[in-house]
Amino acid sequence: MNAYTDISYTSKRIPRKHRNAFTLIELLVVIAIIAILAGMLLPALGKAKAKGKSIACINNLKQTGLAMMLYSDENEDYIPRGNGYPWFLVYMPYMPEGGTDENFSGIRIYKCPSYPNRNPKKRQIITYVINAWKFNGPNDPTGTEQVGPSKITAFQEPSNTVHIGDNENGSWRPIVTGVRDAVMDLNDVFALHQLPLNERSGQLNPERRIASERHNQGSNWVFLDGHAEYLVSNRVVSNLFREEKDPNAKMRITPADR
Q1: How far apart are CA 258 and CA 253, in angstroms?
Q2: What whole-number distance in Å separates Cα of residue 195 and Cα of residue 129?
Q3: 169: helix, coil or strand?
Q4: Residues 6+ apart with CB under 8 A from 17
Q5: Which stretches of 146-197 are assigned E, i.e. beta strand?
Q6: pLDDT of the chain, 258 residues: tens digit per residue
């Protein structure tokens, strides 16, 4: 066997190396597939998270509605309304977290999980607004502010009358932290310009006190019979706040109004 034969024989015994690495094109394909899947899943996850927050908000309002009924039973059918003694202090004894007038910062039920805090150093804990609208009969077009309590029995349709719902997060709102707050008002509704939409034009009210898009395209509310539900902003109209309903009032702002 000569030298050439030895080299040839030896080369046949050397095992071939297996290819373990991806090529650049294969890596780019994998990355593209992951990006496509993420693009499909993230919106669904975002919607699921938003839905969970809305459900938690509804539960907060149901708890507040229960406090309303307990309070009215113990106080000759009276319930809190506008900026007299604040409604959230009136209902505080019925909240599981407890609290005092001087410090109620530990109460979580008054805060919607979807409310955006604009000041990271001061956490807003009152994110709901109360119906303080008083009308002098069903034909009164504007109404006034009810300061202090009124009787729940004055409302003809409790199941069709809102009590408390999502407040707008405008820069005009005072931040209520629950500890030595200098200002705690602007948490009530009593005028047309405080609704999410203008009832005539359908445009956003710049001075609205009710959230227009807190949950999707609307807000959550608890009604005077204790039930809570979601309302699209074009359904939040003045007739929902009245003691006596106007039979001719619009119950929805239709596209024609816009």
Answers
A1: 8
A2: 11
A3: coil
A4: none
A5: 150-151, 162-166, 188-189
A6: 554 455 444 445 555 555 566 687 877 788 888 888 777 776 666 677 878 899 999 999 999 999 999 999 999 999 999 878 899 999 999 998 888 888 998 889 999 999 998 777 888 999 999 999 999 999 999 999 998 999 999 999 999 999 999 999 988 888 899 988 878 878 899 999 999 999 988 999 999 999 999 999 999 999 999 999 999 999 999 999 999 999 988 888 765 444
